[in-house]
Amino acid sequence: MSIKHNLRKYLWRIGYDITRFKPSSHSVARRKQLLDFYNIDTVLDIGANSGQFALELRDDLGYENKIISFEPLSSAYNLLYRNAKGDQNWDVFNIALGDDEEKCEINIAGNSLSSSLLKMLPAHINSAPGSAYIDKEIIQVKTLDSIFNSLCTQTNKVYMKIDTQGFESKVLKGAENSLKQIDTVQLEMSLVPLYEGEVLFNEMCVFMSDKGYNLVAIEPVFSNPDTGQLLQLDGIFQRLSDDLKPYEE
Q1: What count of other Cβ atoms lies within 10 Å of the Cβ of residue 142?
Q2: Cβ atoms of residues 134 and 75 within 8 Å
């Protein structure tokens, strides 16, 4: 058995791994390749929390263009604001995006990341007990369509990431017109019901296909620690070019 294999087995036991950093086998490298290939110059970071996704873009992917982050929770937004301070190309907004203009009550999770406008189901709590709700907060919700033209131009190459804990379909419903100017969409999707009323993976893929998008990448997000069952994943969708669209008579 090689030294490399023994080292890798040891690292597995403590939760680490060694892999070749290339687009075909590493999610971060693949995302950088997609950003570069599609000439992305604007990222909409919807459900930003404290800015983890944006910081990964900056620090790990070397992305230097525009980032626009949206986070409704006041505690997470305060951290987001501090992380974005000093970055002239990173704007932050203390709102949620959905399918209506309203004020709503959001459930605050113990881990903050799992906070949602929807009721959390047992499958989520059983797999991550620390995600159980501990409080509530009133937040402002807007539609992307109501603000998109003030944020992006028709010439921007837009990458929209939505991580809203089961609320993704509502965000998309409020972005019907905006989607026409967004070529790349990253969606967090559940394979089993984790939030009451959420739209699951298969139906979301059909919806995106109907909107003219093709699934180009999948990244694991959240799994059951006891069984290994994958519960959530990120799917990256790219708008089909004319030569790839199905022929219609």
Answers
A1: 17
A2: no
| Domain ranges (residues) in the chain | 21-241
The 10 Å Cβ neighbour count of residue 123 is: 16
How confident is the model over 25-71, as pLDDT tens digits?
677 888 889 999 999 999 999 999 999 999 999 999 999 999 999 99
HSE, side-chain direction, 13 A CA sphere, residue 134: 9
> What is each CA distance from 179 to 44, 45, 234, in whole angstroms?
12, 15, 18
CATH classification for the domain delimited by 21-241, as one of 3.30.40.10, 3.10.290.10, 3.30.930.10, 3.40.50.150: 3.40.50.150
For 118, the 3-state DSSP assignment is: coil
Q: Where are the beta strands (DSSP E) in the chain?
A: 42-46, 66-70, 90-93, 96-97, 102-109, 133-142, 158-162, 184-190, 213-223, 230-239
Is 0.90 surpassed by the pTM of this model?
no
Sign of the torsion formed by the C-alpha atoms of 170, 173, 177 and 180: positive
pLDDT tens digit sequence for 114-171: 999 999 999 999 999 999 999 999 999 999 999 999 999 988 999 999 999 999 999 9
Give the list of residues 6+ apart from residue 80 with CB closer than 8 angstroms, or none: 48, 49, 50, 51, 69, 71, 92
